[in-house]
Amino acid sequence: MSAPTRRQQPAEELLDLARSRNSAYLDDLKALVSIDSGSYSPDGVNQIADWVQNRLTRLGFSVERISFPPHDGHQAGDALVARRKGTLSEADGGRRILLAGHMDTVFEDGTAAARPFRIDGSTAYGPGVSDDKGGLLAGLTALEVLDEYGADAYDELVFLATPDEEIGSPASRTLIENTARDMHYGLGLECARENGDLVIARKGVADFRLTITGRAAHAGIEPERGANAALAAAHLIVRLQALNGHWDDVTVNVGVVRAGTRANIVCSEAELRVEVRAATIADVRRVRQAIQEAADHPSVPGTSVSVEQLDLCPPMEDTPASRRMLEAARAAAGAVGIEVGAAATGGVGDANLIAGMGVATLDGLGPVGGADHTPKEWLDVTSVPHRIAVLAATVASLGDARNTDR
């Protein structure tokens, strides 16, 4: 009597479907990488948007295309928000899942021609091949795989493609936050770390401007009548840099210093620009308080310091909810024969803004890649089918609360 045939698990079937699309994926990746789509190249970004919009429309998503007014003299490309309803209502356990990737790169126009897409062995190269065209395309392919498999037990899938992530999403930030507001889960399509890890946490970034006001005087005749703002700034820099090491996963950097107008005048005004990176919003607040305390007690008599917080990109925090997402991804990975770890990173992205809305978020769900923002940027093409299958299986698992609440 012959042994019964083993029935494939869903993740294994999704892997077969992903493998069947691998050649088309590489052809599409070449087409996307061959388009210059730097953050300051709206025409190129919009070419990517045209391509993505067509793909999503074919999948039955309703697609909204959003244009933005100029910001600080810069015109961003368009953004896309695509939605598709599933068969499981929220009342019955269906969940709303946001998949987010970006269409812009850090590279100038002409880079795609100067450094065209190529595959050498198992590695693809080209501007944006990893960050984020490889991940963006993996997300679209995962949606196609889910569609062919018939996995529609979710309340809603939302696909968000943004045009300006590489410069901090100044145009699209409000759109990202509004789109994330009602989601149960957020999945970032940045590529996995070089060792294959997913991203469980990203530091937040807060930018500050400190203005030091002193009193001008003739530096040769009556310097004692002055109050040197540059000297006060120098003492303040030392105090701020000394905050490094006070808290785990917190960095403080005084990156810009401006002071004075002439060597024969006691400096009356100085300015510091300070960046703080922290893993939790609580630590951002602690550092903000420490900066204010230092500013309240300047080292040079007659000087004063004002503190202005210019911006805050919230942390993507490692939470119990994001850990449950990680376990769903790990289960999917195990089913297709790979292992995935979890990493925290100091880099920020659109996933920070999604997490900042209180949405459980996991990032790094694209293929394995590295050397982002450099001429050596690469993507491991052998990782593509497995990572697409893991992403698709994770979406299918998270879409039905009955899978995660057991």
From TrEMBL:
Q: Which Gene3D superfamilies match?
A: 3.30.70.360, Zn peptidases
Residue ranges annotated for the Peptidase M20 dimerisation domain, each copy included: 200-300
Give the keywords, sorted: Hydrolase, Metal-binding, Zinc
Its recorded name reads: M20 family metallopeptidase
Q: Does the keyword Acetylation apply?
A: no
Q: Has UniProt tagged this entry with the keyword tRNA-binding? A: no
Instruction: Give the highest taxon in the source lineage.
Output: Bacteria
Q: Which CDD domains match?
A: M20_CPDG2
Q: Which cofactor does it need?
A: Zn(2+)
What InterPro entries does the record point to?
A: ArgE/DapE_CS, Bact_exopeptidase_dim_dom, Pept_M20_glutamate_carboxypep, Peptidase_M20, Peptidase_M20_dimer, Peptidase_M20A
Q: What start-end ranges are recorded for coiled-coil regions in this protein?
A: none
